[in-house]
Amino acid sequence: MNMNAQVSTQPRSTLIGRLADRLIASQYQMAVKSLQMEAPDALEQIVAQADPALDSSVAAEIERLLRTRGAPFVRFEKTLMPQMQARFGVTEEQMGTLEAKELAAMKKRCSSCSEAARCWQALRGGESAEQCRELCPNADTFERL
Question: Which of 22, 46, 101, 141 has its CA 20 to 30 A from that of 37?
Fold first, then answer.
């Protein structure tokens, strides 16, 4: 199943059309649940990519998992933090200047962040560093670098 397939975002007016839309959405939800159970590494990669072209039904299910902590296998410090780092324009070289203790603290803040769903939405939506600053617990450090 192509999870990047674009399904019309316009609700259909006929009963058959609405049923077809709901069937497609439920198939995508089941695909995400299957990934969660059988291929968590693949689901983690989808989170890491934060692809804006991802089908809205798939994205909504992933956001639900992130919001409810239903994806404990997703390591935010390995999936979301590198993207947020890039959003703030911070290079690996700059990250290398951090003391090990400070880097560990950043990873811990990211991995325990309660805003993972909002973070993922912001990254998928192409929000600026300024907009991401409101939700990222590591924004101050990124800006300092």
Answer: 22
The CA–CA distances, whole Å, from 104 to 36, 71, 74, 77, 96 equal 27, 22, 17, 10, 12
pLDDT tens digits, residue range 59-81? 999 999 999 988 888 999 999 99
Residue 84 host element (H or E): helix 81-87
pLDDT of 88 > 60? The answer is yes
Q: Determine the Cα–Cα distance for residues 108 and 112; give it in Å rounded to an integer.
A: 6
CA distance 15 to 142: 50
Write down the domain spans for the chain: 15-144
pTM, 2 dp: 0.79
Q: Which two tokens stand for residue 1?
A: 């199943």
